[in-house]
Amino acid sequence: MFERFTKAARAVVKGAVGHAERAGAPDVGPEHLLLALLDREDTRGAAVLHRLCPPDHRPALAAALADARRRAGLSRADTEALAELGIDVGAIVDRVEEAHGTGALAGGRGRPGRRPFSREAKAVLEKSLRVTLARADREIGDEHLLLALTASGGTVAEALADQGVTYASVDAALGAPAPS
């Protein structure tokens, strides 16, 4: 599949590995793909992301990702569903952090060396292929990675949607032909 990635998409994947390593994450997750995409300039995906989520919105996006890491990757929908069962995720996080330190649920320090991709990150990469095929494009670009991030659900899609970056808004910004 990686042979179908453009140079820009490959750079995002490599950048995601770098973000995971610097964060000490045990694996590369969708949030690392997003952070690497935010680092890019002069590509289709980066241009759309910069237009839809300008630099002054980035702190809120980063805070949402950090908050999700603190909750061990649980989305707000997951947290609300657990609350309906009487489970207060915030209280659990507070107790764990009180006993084990801030960010204890965010994942331990990864081992030196190669970082594997999480199941969720692999799903984003696979979805980027499906998006590419559905759009009848020949190669997987960073714009397809962005579309896949918005369509995959979870905390990254949630954080992006809070900033107005949804599959529909990205698709429209890319100038997708109108459905017939």
TrEMBL record:
<keyword id="KW-0677">Repeat</keyword>
<dbReference type="InterPro" id="IPR036628">
    <property type="entry name" value="Clp_N_dom_sf"/>
</dbReference>
<protein>
    <submittedName>
        <fullName>Peptidase</fullName>
    </submittedName>
</protein>
<dbReference type="Pfam" id="PF02861">
    <property type="entry name" value="Clp_N"/>
</dbReference>
<feature type="domain" description="Clp R">
    <location>
        <begin position="2"/>
        <end position="180"/>
    </location>
</feature>
<dbReference type="InterPro" id="IPR004176">
    <property type="entry name" value="Clp_R_N"/>
</dbReference>
